Hints:
HIBADH-related; three-stranded mixed beta sheet; 6PGD_dom2; 2-hydroxy-3-oxopropionate reductase; 13% strand
Amino acid sequence: MSNLPKIAWIGLGIMGSPMAENLLKAGYSVTGFTLEQDKLDRLAAAGGGAAGSIAEAVKDADVIITMVPASPQVEAISYGENGILENAKSGALIIDMSSITPQTSIDLAKNAAEKGIRVIDAPVSGGEAGAIEAVLSIMVGGEQADFDEALPVLQSLGKTIVLCGPHGSGQTVKAANQLIVAVNIQACAEAVVFLEKSGVNLQAALDVLNGGLAGSTVLTRKKDNFLNRDFKPGFRIDLHHKDMGIVTDAARNVGAALPVGAVVAQLVASLRAQGDGGLDHSALLRAVERLSGAQI
């Protein structure tokens, strides 16, 4: 029998499915629950267990990992008669890897503590490719002892894993991450349109730019999206719109000015309003093309 902790995984989307599979590859027992039957079938085919409810998934788990879209979903799966807190065993550790508001994480940790359940917030950066390759950056908020206990699990999912402070700190750092990523994608998209309208070989231009100070992980990961106009979602505009709302609201609360971030947040919102919310966030290129006169 394995001495590794039993893991429950709630939320098997674009990121959650490959992450849960990486834990299976590392030798962990993983029982999952999600609303889509095909995702449960995928987990079962990889060697995991498919639960019929949250309660069934978490009842015997030592570690419960959640990866759902936003704060309302975290609250929905955590609270109530059928939620995690009412059905997990005392002493269990919740690792919430969703991207949500810092206050939601703080509240969850407080409410869980009343049930004898521990929580860390551990949102990630790296997108679908990072999830598949298990090279995510994981920013964590919570107690040192809980972080230390979670670290072996997290090391099966990512490469850069840092405790950033108390509960909610991981979400604050993730908000900053999403700000940087959105502004970076917007700058890349504007450069792509500028280069193409100038008649420059785009492939060559992006290659040389990525070798200098303008290079970035964003450009490395999204270069082919720009070149091929391939906007199959790795991280959807809808989710980045949610995250830009989190960072602009949090920045206002602490008195931090985000002049460029506020503009990009509006560009993300406009792209979503034009029906592109289900596309990858590299589709910010489409917004720049529309502003530049293209008919899309």
